Amino acid sequence: MTVPGRRSSTFSRLLRHGFTDPSAAERLLDLPELAALRGDPVLLDALGATADPDLALRGLVRLAEAQPETERGTFTTTLLSAKPFRDRLLGVLGASEALADHLVRHPKDWETLVTYEAVDLHPGVTEFEHGLAEAADPVALRVAYRRCLLGIAARDVCGTTDVAQTAAELADLATATLRAALALARAAEPADAAQCRLAVIAMGKCGGHELNYVSDVDVIFVGEPAEGADEAKALQAATRLASHLMRICSETTVEGTIWPVDANLRPEGRNGPLVRTLSSHLAYYQRWAKTWEFQALLKARPVAGDPELGSAYVDAVSPMVWQAAERENFVTDVQAMRRRVVDNIPVDRVDRELKLGPGGLRDVEFAVQLLQLVHGRSDATLHSGSTLDALAALAAGGYVGRADAAQLDEAYRFLRAMEHRIQLYRLRRTHLVPEGEEDLRRLGRSLGLRTDPVAALNKEWKRHASVVRRLHEKLFYRPLLDAVAQLAPGETRLSTKAAGQRLEALGYADPAAALRHLEALASGVSRKAAIQRTLLPVLLGWFADSADPDAGLLGFRRVSDALGKTPWYLRLLRDEGAAAENLARVLSAGRLAPDLLLRAPEAVAILGDPEGLKPRGRDHLEQEVLAAVGRADDAEQAVAAARGVRRRELFRTAAADLIDSYGTEDSPRTSDPGALVDRVGEAVTDLNAATIAGALRAAVRAGWGDELPTRFAVIGMGRFGGHELGYGSDADVLFVHEPREGVDEQEAARAAARVVTEMRRLLQVPTTDPPLLIDADLRPEGRSGPLVRTLASYGAYYRRWSLTWESQALLRAAPIAGDPDLGRRFIELIDPLRYPAEGLGEDAVREIRRLKARMESERLPRGADPTLHAKLGRGGLSDVEWTVQLLQMRHAWAEPGLRTTRTRAALFAAHAAGLIPTEEAQTLDEAWVLATRVRNAVMLVRGRPGDTFPSEPRELAAVGRYLGYAPGHVGEMVDDYRRITRRARAVVDELFYGA
C-alpha cells in the first residue's frame, strides 16, 4: 500500500533530477526488473547526471529486461557496486538511443564498459584491432564495431576524453575497421590478394584524425602488381578487393551498416578508375589536378593495406601539396573557394546547418587549410591533417594571432561537440541542429548546460558561430597588420616573406607595395591609425574579393591620406557598416570611380547614407547647378561648379552601379541587369542635361545678362535623347534658336553661335573634373552645316533636303535644355519626318538597309573581332537599334507606343503591338542590355571608353566580376557574349534584312 503523500515526494525528487515525465519514470522504477536497484540512493543521482534521464531510465529497463534471468543479478550488482561502470552505462543510455538498441540486441556487451584500466582510457588502433579481431564476417564486424563504439561514447559522455580525443579515437576505430574489412575481402578472394599490393589512403576527417560518430569515410586506393604479376590484371584484382572492402563497410545487414566508404576524392572523381598505380596518381596530380584536390590531400594518411606503398604515396604527393600555392591559378581558385557554398542548402535549413552554414565548422576548416597551403611551403611545422593541431601550429608560428586562435579553438571544439552529440543520439549522419524542444534539451544537457538548457544552448551556439564568422576573415588579414605594427613583448609576427606569401595568395600582385601601404595606414598611435587597424582586416578581405586588390588598397590609402584627419570620415567608416564595404567595392572595381572620388574625396559620405546611392532627378540637379552658377563670379567659375556637381553625380551613379553589380554581405547583387542599364542611362542623361543647362545659363549671363536676344534650346540626340547614355558617352545634340520679337536675325544668329561656342569651350576647359564633350555632327549638312539654326531653317531644310537617315536619327531627338516651348515646337516640327504617315515606302526601307550594310563593312575598326564589338559587331547595339528604329518608322504612325526615343521602350511597344514575337523581343533586349553593360564595364574598369573586351587579364577579370562572373570564368563570359549576340543577329537578319 502506498503511503499518502509518498508519490508526490518521489514525483518531486524525479523532477529535481531532470526527468520531464516523472509519472512514467515512477512506473518504470516500480517494475520488477529494477527491484534490486530501487533502494539504491545514488541511482537517481546517476540518472539525473545524464543528458536525458527519461531516455536513460527507459534504456536501463530495456537492458535489464534483455538480461537472461540467470545473469540479471550480476548486471544489477555490478551497476550498484561500480560507480565508473554506472556512470559510463547510464551516460551512454541517456545520450544514445541507437547504442541502447545495440545493448538490447547484444545484452552481454555491457560488460565491455566494466573494465577501467589505463589502456581503456585512451585506446589506439592496436586496441581497436584487438576488439575487432574475432569478426569473421560483415555482420560480426558490425557488432564488434558497435561494441568498440560503446567504449568511445562512454568516455566521451563522461568527460574522460575531450572532443579532439574522441574524434581521434573514432578515426583510429575507422582505421582498424578498414583493416579488418580488407582482411575479410582478401580472405574471400585469395587469388586477387596474391596478384596485387593495395594501399588504402584515408582522406578527409578520417585522414585528419578528427572523425565524427557518423560520417562517410573518404579514401583513395593505390594499387601495384605483386612481383611477377601483370599490371592490368593486378589492377583489376585490386579493384575487386577495394570494391569488396567498400561493400563490407557500406552495405546494410541485419546489424545495420558501419558507414559509407567514399572514394570520390580520387583523380577524376567517380568517373575515374577506383584503383590506380602510384605513377598514374602522380601523373594526374602533376598535369590535371585542381587546387581543391591538393587542399584535400592535406589530410592524406595511409591506414590499411600495404604500408610501404601507402607511405610511398604520401611521400610522393606531399611536396605537391605544399607547392600548390605557387600554381598559376592558385589565387583564382582560392577566390572561388572562399565564396561560401551555401546555395545548395535549403533556405529553411541555413540557420540550423552546423557544418556549412555561416559561422559553421567548414569556415574554420577552410580558413586553417588555406593558411596551411600558403605558409606550409616554407614551414614544415604546419604539415598536420588535424584542424586543431594545425591551428595551434599557425598560432605558434605567428601566422594567426594567439587570441584569435584561442577563440577559434574554443568555438570549433564547441561546434564539434554539438555535432558529435547530435549524431550520437540515433547514430545518423546529420549536421542539422534539431528543432524539437526535447532534442534541444538533451543536446544542451549533454554539453553541461543544466540551467535552462535550451536557452543556454542557443545562446552558446550563436555566440560561437558569431566568433567564427567574425574571425573567419580576420584570420587572414590581422597578422598582416601585426607584421608591420609594433607588437607586445613575446608576441610572434609574420615575417616579411610570410606576409608577402599571404598577400600573393589573396590576389595581390605587388605584395611589397601592399605591405608599405599597410604600414603607412596602420602604424602609429593616433586615433586614425587605431581605427584603421580595426577596419583593415575586413577591408583587405573585400579587396581580395575583387579583380584588383592592389588598386583597392592603394585607393584606400589615398582617400585616407586626404580625409584621415576629418572626424566624420573615420566615424563614417567605423560606425556605418555599409560604408566601409561599399568603399572597398568601389575602390577595387576599376579606375573610373576611384578617380572621380579622389578628385573630391568628401564624396565618400555618399557611401554611408542609405539614400546616398539613389540617383538625383533632373529637376533636383538642375536646381542645384543653376543655383551654383548664380553664385559664381564669372562663367568659368560657374561651369566649374556645374562640372563639380556632374563629377559628384557620376561618382554616385558609378558607385551604386558597382555595388549593385557586385552585391554586398547584406544585399545580394541585382538580378535584373536591364534595370541597372536603365538606371545608369537615366542618371547620366539627367546629370549631363543639368550640366549643359548650367553651361547655357553661364554663357548667356556672361555675354548678355539675364536674357539672350534669341530663344535657344538644346535637343538631345542619339543616346542622349534616348536616356541611354553610358559613362563614356559624348553628348550628341542639335542647337536651335528663334529670334525674339524685334531682334535682327543676323544679331540673333551671331548670339546663338557665340553661346554654342562658349558652352562647348566651358565644358571642355582642362580641370580636375572630367570634360563633357558636345557632338553636333547629326545636324543638317553635318560638319559642313552651321552649328545652330533657327526653327524655320530646320523646317525648310527638312522639307527640301532631308535624307532617310536624318529622319531615322531624329527618332532619338528630345529637348534637354533651354527654352521649353521652343524645344516642344521643334519636336512638333520633326514628328511627321520620323513617324511618316502610312509608314516608310519600300525605297526608303531599301535605303536604310543599304546604309546599314555599308556601315557594317566600313566603320568596324580594322582588326576588331566582329563577334565581340559591342557597338558595331554582330548582334550588338547598332544591330538592335536599327532593327527597332526601322519598326518605329514603319509603324509608329499607327502605334502610339512606338513614339518614344528609348530603345527598350520601343522594343516592348513593338512586342505589345504584335510586331515582334516574345522570344525574338527577349533575344534583342538581352543582347542590347549586355552590350550596353559591356561598354559601361570597360569605362568603369579602364577609365576610358571602349567597345570591346579588354585584353589585359586583370581588366578582363574586372569586367567579368561586374557582369556577374566568378573569378576564372572570363572564358565563359566571352562565350556567353558571343552566344547571346549571335542569336540576336539571327533575329536582326529576319526582322531588319527580311532574310
Put the structure in a nutshell:
The chain is built from 44 helices and ten strands. By secondary structure, the protein is mainly α. The N and C termini lie far apart (103 Å).
User: Structural class of the secondary structure composition?
Assistant: mainly alpha
Helix content: 55-70%
What is the arithmetic mean of pLDDT?
Answer: 92
Count of DSSP-assigned helices: 44
Overall spatial form: elongated
Rg, Cα atoms, Å: 38 Å
Secondary structure tally: strands: 10
- Oligomeric state, counting identical vs distinct chains: single chain
Q: Main beta sheet: strand number and arrangement?
A: 5 strands, mixed
Intertermini distance: 103 Å
List low-pLDDT spans: 1-6
Percent of sequence in beta strands: 5-15%
Tell me about this structure.
The protein is mainly alpha-helical and 995 residues long. The chain has 44 helices and ten strands. Strands 1, 2, 3, 4 and 5 form a five-stranded mixed sheet that branches. α26 (527-544) crosses α29 and α28 packs across α29. The longest helix has 32 residues, at 673-704. The chain is elongated, with a radius of gyration of 38 Å. Residues 1-6 have low confidence and may be disordered.
Key words describing this protein structure:
five-stranded mixed beta sheet; 61% helix; single chain; disordered N terminus; 995 residues; mainly alpha; 44 helices
